[in-house]
Amino acid sequence: EIKNSDICILSSGIILYEALSYKKIIFSKPISKNQLPHYKYLLKNKFIFPIKDLRRFSFNKKLTNQLNNFNNEQEIYYDNSKIVQLMINPIKDTSNKDIYLEPYNKKYNYDLYKMQTSAYRKFYINKNSFNYSNHKKYLGQMSKNKITLYIIKRNESFSGYIKFEIKRNKIHVSIAVKKIFQRKKIAFKILEYLMKNSFFKLMPFAEINKKNLASFKTFKKAGFKNKNIKTLL
To answer: What is this structure's pTM?
Structure first.
């Protein structure tokens, strides 16, 4: 039953470790004194959520749709449970607004396209522009090309995207935030969360335009080492 579940509501005994071995989202509460040390340790290290958090979380069609948007093949490369945890318990930007990720959905196609202007792309490795038709074609072929896209949300608003592409046994990472939401450390917070929570099952890698010093500093501060970054013209 645990293996076939997306979310588990459990007492804080040994069963927690079985659920964790399957990388499940867990809400828990200790029901005896001997369970309390397990509960405190796992809660402190953010492996589980307290049962009281269920009161502020709605199990609705939206979450079901988001869970269904995960491609099972992605589990080879990413730990998608970390994305669901972020949806349940968002991190905060410098303005104390909730930020989290959700799987790509074609309803965001035009929002994504508006972030492909010359102003945004001046620091990209590939600066070439393209029309909306080619943009939709590219998005439609992402799975075939081993590309995964997540939408960055800030208090329910589209705020940017993070892209992962499998190349040569590495996960190439790129991230972009809408101009109106920049300087709020959104990119840093997302990258730091993914790195600290072992989201990547292959080596994460970023190719950064050497003129884009802000991006280089963001990746480094978030936990990318020199071996994880390559600067290009």
So the answer is: 0.76
